[in-house]
Amino acid sequence: ILIAISYMAGTALSNAKLTLWAKTELVQLVVSIASVSIIMFAVSAFCAIDMKEIANVFGLPGASTLSSINVYDAAKAYLYGAALYSHNALTVARYHLEGYTVLSYFNAFICDFPIGRIGLGCLFGYAGDTQQPFGGYGADIAAMNVFFNGMIMAHFTVLNFLFILLFIYKGFVFLFLPLGIFLRALPFMRPVGSVLIALALSFLTVYPFTLGVFYLMGSVLLDSGTGYAPADIDMDLYDEDIFPDSTNMASQLGVSTGGEMVAKCNYFGTSRSECIGWAVVNEFALGGLVDLPEGMFDRENPVGAIGFAANAFIAAVFFPTIALLTAIASVSYMARM
Asked: What is the reported pTM?
């Protein structure tokens, strides 16, 4: 109404400046309406797109495991999956790090002139050396520490990206879009208003759309088809109930008499009871001369744990950062509209 009145007054009074101002404001009004229309159209389109159908059309791997959800839910599902993936990698790295730390401190007394576990030095006194059978795990501890700390950062980083996405869904557009339209109506604040509208448009469309594309790659990026863990990692093996209670005298006696392999079985034995049985038999009946059968320590997988952590860092930090930077970069282009 104000623009129409200004135009009529400028025409009636032959005031070119007033007429030009009215025409300029009319153009800006059309741009503002168009911006709002684009946002509403994009939101409606993103709510109608079925990501599973998109995956089927392009024949993407793992399409059958995807859910029929829209772009916005797909973006959230990717960050949920990335958070779970990084948490699983953190669990595996922590498990190995704790196991290596405890085992590296275990001591064993080796008698002089040993024949297996039997030494002549212990038959005529108490002559021998105290050794750390798993002292070599010190190098593994140093390597695992790096990836464990990296997983802590990755997990909290992906949670931060998730909080940003939820803020965009819950109130971002309702704050910046009306404020941007209002500021565009003020001649001296028009550039600021354009930036706010561009922020609303970019973060409501570009950011979730990019994450939605990554959701389509979930079977590759997040191993979603194998329980959000690599195929060679069984998360059921890495529980929290690890070493026997140190205050339990029976447990202490079992470790001290069964040898250091009993301690290793408690951490990395595939079947702890079977592994401990073999360790005790080897200690007493075979003199410690026979190695335990292969496959007894499937829980110990440092290479797999490190690879898992590296993949999780890429999925939880690198790709969400790309989505965020893409949205930020698009703001400068949209602000020129």
From this structure: 0.79
